[in-house]
Design goal:
102 residues; mainly beta; five-stranded parallel sheet; 0% helix; 49% strand
Length: 102
């Protein structure tokens, strides 16, 4: 939590709980999260990419700028709310419940 600078890359998180909050920098990449719970809130920077989230619960809230790409979410529950700027792409959501508000 509270990562305030530059580049953050999280890859190959295969189980358990993943929480990422108050990331204020430019580029955030999360790839190959295969299970458990993923929560991302208050991401205020430019580019956010989340790819290949294959199970469990994913919540993204309070994304306030730039480009957000979420692709290949294959199961469980996905909630995205309060995306306030720029470009948002969600592709290949194959199961469960998808809620996209605001």
């Amino acid at each position: 939590m509270e990562v305030n600078d530059g580049l953050q890359i999280i890859m190959e998180v295969n189980g358990g709980l993943h929480i990422n909050m108050e990331v204020n920098g430019d580029l955030q990449i999360i790839m190959e999260v295969n299970g458990g719970l993923q929560i991302i809130m208050e991401v205020n920077g430019d580019l956010q990419i989340i790819m290949e989230v294959n199970g469990g619960l994913q919540i993204i809230m309070g994304v306030n700028g730039g480009l957000q790409i979420i692709m290949e979410v294959n199961g469980g529950l996905q909630i995205i709310m309060e995306v306030n700027g720029g470009l948002q792409i969600i592709m290949e959501v194959n199961g469960g419940l998808l809620i996209n508000m605001k």
